[in-house]
Design goal:
The complex is a heterodimer of chains A (314) and B (267).
Chain A lengths: L1 E10 L2 E11 L3 E6 L6 H8 L7 E6 L2 E2 L5 H5 L2 E4 L11 H11 L5 H11 L15 H13 L5 E5 L7 H16 L3 E6 L2 H7 L2 E6 L1 E6 L1 H6 L5 E7 L6 H8 L4 E4 L3 E5 L3 H14 L3 E7 L4 H13 L9
Helix pairs in contact in A: 3-4, 9-10
Chain B lengths: L3 H16 L6 H25 L7 H9 L8 H14 L1 H15 L1 H7 L3 H5 L5 H34 L4 H5 L2 H26 L5 H8 L3 H12 L7 H25 L2 H6 L3
Helix pairs in contact in B: 1-8, 2-4, 2-5, 2-8, 3-4, 5-8, 5-10, 5-11, 5-12, 8-10, 10-11, 10-13
Classes of the chains: A alpha/beta (314), B mainly alpha (267).
């Protein structure tokens, strides 16, 4: 479990991270979202014990992270840095071997074999890292991060610029680690990935702007609009719509759907459907308009820019 | 507390890396070869080729007597002994110059290759990192230097005037090669690594690190002029002093190794 409490980090006059508090529980994946320079990497580095917070505290598995406990706690943390950081003149196996020895892993060779197999790297184990593709390098870096079976995983943009196949493989692997009880914090720019992977999403912009489940974040930006998809031309149904919800409620009409702005969707929707059916509509789908996470994220960033954060919850 | 396993792990990486980048050892090989060619050229080849034995030079005769060396040797043999003893000082410089490129690259090189951050995310302590870096540069260069020294002493036994080889096998030679040379190399390497962790360009570290050669060369010149002759005891004191300096530099290196600045400011 990761617990960050009122973390602040300043570099001279610049504040990179300001009073950030959150927790990542066991078997949980939290995605850290934010624009460039929002403090994501600084937060991860503080959690990995690489840099100290200016103020605030960090606990890993219930133990305070300090200079004295840093070494022991780093045994339990796997930190994937933004760059793979492989030694180019060493082979894949040699890279893993150095780290296995660094972590004092017993039965090193078997553990390396198992890790290579897990990542599908067995046939590349004798390849010099300089000769690997970007995706392969990232795989090796992730293999190195997981080599010592850490209970806490801190991953700085693990799928940045990777092809969908490797991205999917990494996603599946993280889901597996989550199931094994790991606490996982992933920084990413990829909103789709955050939505697919994370149990909760934390939006960071120097401060923690919001933290919640993706669906709850989206609900914050509920538009109150209902989309009605019908067979045939929806414009012929406008009369029925106007009779129930008025002319102002029609937000958009396209070739297959009506988008209606309702003042009370729960009350108005059943009457609307009855009226449409009575008017001869063949209704294919009725659903509330759900904003994509991207819209929520951009909305939060705009609010942050205008100084009206939604406030962090959860 | 130092965890030897972690030092050995990083050391194994240093050796593997060096084994695949042997050109990094070219400077130490070149300096070692020069350290062999120069003394044999001056003490044996040039007099033989020109037909002018060393004892024709009154200054050399005088200086070799100042050094108080084996009075039972002939003038020619004593001058050879004097010269070979002087050129032995080159073996102090060999590991220093040769390993400088490796040591000065130690920390800043990892940073530039972006391999330092994952390394620092392990339980590896700063002292363990620095000691592995020093040994990673020192051991290969000392090994090459030791081979050079063996050739040097073997060459003297075979090619020099009778009695010179035996006279070379002295306590002074032993102290110089076993204590002073490694200690000087340690000081130079530790200085280079300290600088390497404070600058963001390996060339800067190398330029600063090479300054350690200046006092060694000065010592050599002073001895050549015959105004100073360091006995085995004096050399042992210098060796001890150098080890003390190395201890201090090691402590400074750990204290001054600012991992936060290295991670956050260097680009």
């Amino acid at each position: 479990m990761i617990s960050a409490s009122h973390l602040t980090r300043r570099f001279g006059a610049r504040t990179a991270v300001n009073d950030v508090s959150f927790e990542v529980g066991r078997s949980e994946i939290v995605a850290l979202l934010g624009p460039n320079g929002a403090g994501k990497t600084t937060t991860l580095r503080m959690l990995a014990g690489l840099i100290a917070p200016t103020s605030g505290s960090i606990a890993i598995e219930g133990r305070q992270l300090t200079r004295a406990t840093g070494g022991a706690l780093r045994m339990r943390i796997g930190f994937l840095t933004e760059a793979p950081g492989l030694w180019d003149r060493l082979t894949v196996r040699e890279n893993l071997g150095v780290y296995a020895r660094m972590y004092g892993i017993a039965d090193r060779e078997r553990r390396i074999d198992r890790t290579l197999e897990l990542f599908g790297l067995t046939d590349r184990q004798a390849t010099l890292c300089a000769e690997l593709s970007k995706g392969m390098r990232q795989k090796v870096a992730l293999a190195r991060t997981l080599l010592h079976d850490p209970v806490v995983l801190l991953l700085d943009e693990p799928t940045s610029s990777l092809d969908p196949e490797v991205t999917r493989m990494i996603r599946l692997l993280l889901e597996e680690r989550r199931a094994a009880g790991c606490s996982i914090l992933v920084s990413t720019h990829n909103l789709d990935e955050a939505e697919r992977l994370a149990d909760r999403v934390a939006v960071l912009h120097e401060r923690l702007v919001a933290i919640d489940e993706p669906s709850a974040l989206r609900a914050r930006l509920t538009t109150g609009r209902v989309i009605v998809r019908v067979a045939g031309d929806p414009s012929v149904l406008l009369g029925a719509v106007h009779s129930v919800v008025g002319t102002d409620a029609v937000h958009a009409v396209d070739r297959a759907a009506l988008t209606l702005q309702l003042t009370d969707a729960n009350r108005q929707t059943p009457a609307l459907i009855r009226a449409l059916v009575a008017a001869g509509a063949e209704i294919l789908e009725v659903r509330p308009e759900i904003p994509p996470l991207e819209d929520v994220y951009l909305h939060l960033m705009e609010e942050r820019g205008s100084g009206q954060g939604l406030g962090a919850r959860g | 507390m130092i965890e030897i396993g972690r030092v050995r792990a990083l050391l194994s990486k240093e050796f593997l890396d060096l084994a695949r980048n042997r050109t990094a050892l070219v400077p130490v090989v070149v300096v070692t070869v020069l350290s062999l060619v120069l003394p044999f050229g001056v003490a044996i080849a040039v007099p033989a080729l020109t037909g002018h034995p060393l004892d024709e030079d009154a200054d050399l005769v005088r200086v070799s007597r100042v050094a108080g060396m084996s009075p039972d040797l002939s003038d020619n043999a004593r001058i050879q002994l004097f010269l070979f003893q002087q050129f032995l000082m080159l073996f102090l410089v060999t590991p220093v110059t040769g390993a400088m490129a490796l040591a000065s690259h130690a920390v800043v090189g990892e940073k530039q290759a972006r391999t330092l951050e994952p390394l620092l995310a392990t339980p590896l302590t700063t002292f363990e990192l620095l000691i592995a870096k020093v040994l990673g540069a020192l051991l290969p260069t000392l090994a090459i230097s030791a081979i050079g020294l063996a050739i040097y002493l073997g060459g003297i036994a075979r090619l020099a005037a009778p009695g010179v080889g035996v006279a070379m096998a002295s306590l002074r030679t032993l102290v110089l090669t076993i204590l002073v040379a490694p200690a000087a190399a340690l000081v130079a390497l530790q200085a280079a690594i300290l600088i390497s962790s404070r600058v963001n360009d390996p060339r800067t570290a190398q330029q600063f690190g090479v300054l350690i050669i200046v006092p060694l060369v000065a010592l050599m010149v002073v001895q050549f002029l015959g105004s100073l002759w360091l006995s085995a005891a004096a050399l042992a004191l210098i060796g001890g002093g150098l080890l003390g300096v190395w201890g201090l530099l090691s402590a400074f290196s750990v204290a001054l190794f600012d991992r936060e600045t290295i991670l956050t400011r260097w680009r």
